[in-house]
Design goal:
Elements: E1 3-6, H1 10-22, E2 26-32, H2 39-43, E3 46-51, H3 62-71, E4 76-78, H4 88-96, E5 100-101, H5 106-112, H6 115-122, H7 140-150, E6 154-158, E7 168-170, H8 173-191, E8 196-200, E9 206-214, E10 220-232, E11 235-241, H9 248-264, E12 269-277, E13 283-289, H10 296-303, H11 307-315, E14 332-339, E15 341-342, E16 348-349, E17 356-358, E18 365-369, E19 384-392, H12 395-408, E20 410-412, H13 418-426, H14 428-432, H15 439-443, H16 446-473
Parallel strand pairs: 1-2, 1-4, 2-3, 4-5
Antiparallel strand pairs: 6-7, 6-8, 9-10, 9-12, 10-11, 11-14, 12-13, 14-19, 15-16, 17-20, 18-19
Bound molecules: ligand MV4.
The site of ligand MV4 has 16 residues, from strand 8 and strand 13.
């Protein structure tokens, strides 16, 4: 593999190219007209404009991207996350054109893209699943019987849904029929597939996911967990590894279950198996994400493994260079997603120009960044500016370093989620580790950040006054 085309933009495109360069592989960037001067374009060895700003006229143009890859003699395409990364047809088209898709085979993407197909695939592997059904249901009487059987509250989910889309909680039997009709019509219009199914609703779960990596020789390893419970409307905000609630025993049980999920769909490359963990520490398989995830750096920091390097190696057909027994967790890592969103205004995208943009540096601080000072933030794409990642010997160290790094991250011109990250890191529920997926809803409001800021301003004023008074007492001898 001599040349890789990266079919993405922003921080992840740069992240992938960094490893490619380290491995002596040339890189090709693709970009849209608004990204002409973007850092990922400058970072690549070659770059090609593939269209206009809207993603469906550029970053989502699979055939165009394949064409560019062939013209420039690239051997492989790395899709990053989002865009074409979980498009089974694209993966197939890449391989048909004798290029390597750095990711799983089309078939595995397809299976895991459907929750029902995923449940079906892992059925024979003894993976714990939430009580419920594994078939699409349309008959409301049947649904009522099932719901009574598993007990309310239940959750109606769309098979084709993702990121919480098309989910409905039903508390009591009377509501079931109408909620089910709504779920079906919502799923039909959103995904073109009205299949829904029913699960027991796990009320206060933690979201814990396991990183896996598979080669084409039948080897699958897991690289432990990431805790992603701090999220807002299914958008992750803070992630960490390891989770503060897993025991070594539970960790290896979940790891083994994740490996089995990967084997069930003949997986290749990097993947993530999502679980819910309930209050009694029962875990349940939810779904598998067939891509490199945004939050992969925390896993890299606690394992010392470069996940992109492994992706490239297994895509080249090499055997995994590490075995399960070689891996161990060292230290603790936290990641904060720095979005150009205003936490004081319902997290509305805050687009504009980055008048000041200085990222923190130092030991234990990693910033995977896609922006630079003076740039405009395009409105066409995800508003994530960067990921601020900290690493320490302990969770406490990583949290303290995160708070320090946030204070050294200078952004002017747009609002960001940095202040929100500070709120999370200082919150007792977070520092004590007693939190679940309801953390943000339960504890956060814009007023809380405003109160914190007001308190800090007050303290700063008192300190300033003290200095002033002390200064006044100093005897000054006139110099003339
Ligand atoms: C659940 C659940 C409770 N019970 N399933 C949300 C997105 C999708 N990946 C699955 N999700 C959930 N499935 C059962 N049976 C609660 C959620 C859920 C959630 C899961 C992970 C992270 C954040 C979440 C926020 C709300 C709900």
């Amino acid at each position: 593999m001599k040349k890789i085309l990266v079919a993405n933009r922003g921080e992840i495109a740069i992240r992938v190219m960094k490893t490619a360069k380290k491995m002596g592989i040339k890189t090709v960037a693709v970009y849209s007209t608004v990204d002409r001067d973007a850092p990922h374009v400058k970072f690549a060895d070659e770059a090609v404009c593939i269209g206009e700003a809207p993603s469906n006229q550029s970053y989502l143009l699979g055939s165009k991207i394949i064409e560019v890859a062939m013209q420039l003699d690239a051997d492989a395409i790395h899709p990053g996350y989002g865009f074409l990364s979980e498009n089974a047809d694209f993966a197939e088209e890449v391989e048909k054109n004798n290029l390597i898709f750095i990711g799983p085979k089309s078939k595995a993407i397809q299976i895991m893209g459907s929750k029902l197909a995923a449940k079906d695939a892992v059925k024979a592997y003894d993976i714990p699943m939430v009580p419920g059904i594994d078939e699409a249901i349309t008959d409301t009487d049947k649904a009522k019987a099932i719901a009574k059987d598993i007990g309310f509250p239940i959750l109606i989910k769309a098979s084709a849904g993702g990121g919480g889309k098309g989910m409905r909680i039903v508390e009591k039997e009377e509501d079931l029929e109408s909620q089910m009709q709504r779920a079906i019509s919502e799923a039909t219009s959103a995904f073109g597939d009205g299949s829904v199914f029913i699960e027991k609703y796990v009320a206060s779960p933690r979201h814990i996911e396991i990183q896996i990596m598979a080669d084409s020789h039948g080897n699958v390893i897991h690289l432990f967990e990431r805790e992603c419970s701090v999220q807002r409307r299914h958008q992750k905000v803070v992630e960490e590894a390891p989770s503060s609630v897993l025991t070594p025993k539970l960790r290896s049980k979940m790891g083994e279950a994740a490996v089995k999920v990967a084997k069930a769909c003949d997986y290749l490359g990097a993947g993530t198996v999502e679980f819910l963990l309930d209050e009694n520490h029962n875990f349940y398989f939810l779904e598998m994400n067939t891509r490199l995830q945004v939050e992969h750096p925390v896993t890299e920091l606690i394992t010392g493994v470069d996940l992109v390097a492994l992706q490239i190696k297994v895509a080249r057909g090499e055997k995994l260079p590490i075995a399960q027994g070689d891996l161990k967790i060292k230290g603790h890592a936290l990641e904060l997603r720095v979005y150009a969103e205003d936490p004081l205004n319902d997290f509305l995208p805050s687009v504009g120009r980055l008048d000041v943009y200085q990222i923190p540096v130092g030991e234990g601080i990693r910033v995977d960044n896609g922006f630079e000072e003076g740039m405009d933030i395009p409105i066409y794409y995800d508003p994530m500016l960067a990921k601020l990642i900290t690493y320490g010997n302990t969770r406490e160290e990583a949290i303290l370093l995160m708070i320090k790094a946030i204070s050294e991250y200078k952004v002017e011109g747009v609002q960001t989620t940095l202040t929100f990250g500070k709120f999370v890191c200082e919150h007792e529920a977070f520092t004590s580790g007693h939190f679940d997926t309801h953390f943000v809803k339960k504890y956060y409001s814009a007023e809380k950040i405003q109160t914190n800021t007001a308190q800090e301003a007050k303290i700063a004023a008192i300190v300033a006054m003290k200095h002033y008074l002390k200064d006044q007492q100093t005897l000054r001898i006139p110099t003339h």
